Amino acid sequence: MKVEANKNIASIGGYAFDEIDKLKNELIEKGVDIIDFGVGDPTTSTPEFIREAAKKAIDKHKCSGYPPTLGMPAYIEAICKYTKKRFNVELNSKTQVVSNLGSKEAIFNFPLAFLNKGDVVLCPNPGYPPYERGTLFAGGTPYYMNLTEENDFYPDFDKIPGDILKKARIMWMNYPNNPTSQTATKEFYRKAVDFCHKHDIILASDEPYGEIYFEEPSMSLLEVSTEGVVVFNSFSKRSAMTGYRVGWAAGDERVISAFKKLKANVDSGTPYFIQEAAITALGDETHVEKMRDEYREKRDIFVDAFEKMGLEVNSPKATFYIWQKAKGMSGAEFAKKLLEECGMVVSPGEIFATTVDGVNPGKDYIRMALVPSIEKTKEAAERMGKLKL
Ligand SMILES: Cc1ncc(COP(=O)(O)O)c(C=O)c1O
């Protein structure tokens, strides 16, 4: 019997991080003491009070039962309260918020609710892979908006051809940005909203790094508009809860309503006890401040180390990523050098970007995720200091 995957499965390579994992495991087998700045997964424990809340909630919900697919009322209310307090935006809990299993599945599935054959989705490039993959699996076509140093890592809307705009249904946006660490300004968000309103494009803003900032608190796109806008967020980075799989989408009720209809067919909701843990997490800011301080310290260690190596450094204002330009070599070559000579896993920038017309906007860069401990970060910076460039 023949088993054939569909053309989307067949046409994509492995998930970007599979390759990093493979390389890392090969080195571990060789006995190399590696320090891993590859995948953006916090290595700190989920704070104890959040874990305790989850444990208690397991007993509270003795009969596990299917949770409400679209979120427990108390969870949705907690999201509304947070959005009001943090961004001064009022959301209608009945119509403007939906619970997700973290953001990844929601981002991947979102285009299914809006695309028809031939429709286009505007994706930042480099960008989080599910923007592109979700588009392809929904039968759409991604159009890549390159984020480059020349345009301050913002998409250049004037470069999008008219025929693409006619077919565009969704524009993805992600600030604070993975991988470039760029943050959004109010002017930029205003311009993006006006542009999308003019062309009837849903503006989908993916904001999981919103609480990891080192200067001004990051803005949410919701502060500029909720019309035609949907924001995705999760607890993964804010509260080191990547394994809990809990998040939400909020915005224009027409967008949320269509997405809710889709979701009711896709998943059965985040478990009650996880939603309870998320409510508890949202009620505390102290652990978030502590996390910001730690990432800031690690950022400073590396910014200093790269400067001493004579590299041009853009000190990140937010996120736990450093998007570092290589010197005299490609990002892939720099990543290889760091791996072989310093035992450091970093990601070659090109894996976050798609090559269009022979140009890969990530090729000159490496991305470092500042997730190892402060001790390990110091050790890595020391190892880098001995590197001959
Ligand atoms: C830009 C971006 N969006 C979304 C996510 C998804 O996070 P989660 O599914 O854990 O909420 C990530 C995770 O690394 C990310 O980097």
Folded structure, characterized:
39% of the residues lie in helices and 14% in strands. With 389 residues, the chain is of the alpha/beta class. The chain folds into 2 domains: 7-45 and 286-385, Aspartate Aminotransferase, domain 1 (Alpha-Beta Complex), CATH 3.90.1150.10; 49-282, 3-Layer(aba) Sandwich (Aspartate Aminotransferase, domain 2). A 7-stranded mixed sheet has the order 2-8-7-6-5-3-4, with helices on both faces. A 3-stranded antiparallel sheet has the order 9-12-11, with helices on one face. Helix 6 (129-137) links the parallel strand 3 (120-125) and strand 4. The radius of gyration is 21 Å and the shape is globular. It starts with 6 loop residues before the first helix and ends with a helix. The mean pLDDT is 94. The protein binds pyridoxal-5'-phosphate. Pyridoxal-5'-phosphate (PLP) binds next to loops.
- Class based on secondary structure composition and strand pairing: alpha/beta
Strand order of the largest sheet: 2-8-7-6-5-3-4
Count structural domains.
Answer: 2
What is the count of DSSP helices, taking H or I runs of 4+ residues? 13
Unreliable residue stretches: none
Strand content: 5-15%
Residue-averaged pLDDT: 94
How much helix, percentage-wise, in residues?
Answer: 25-40%
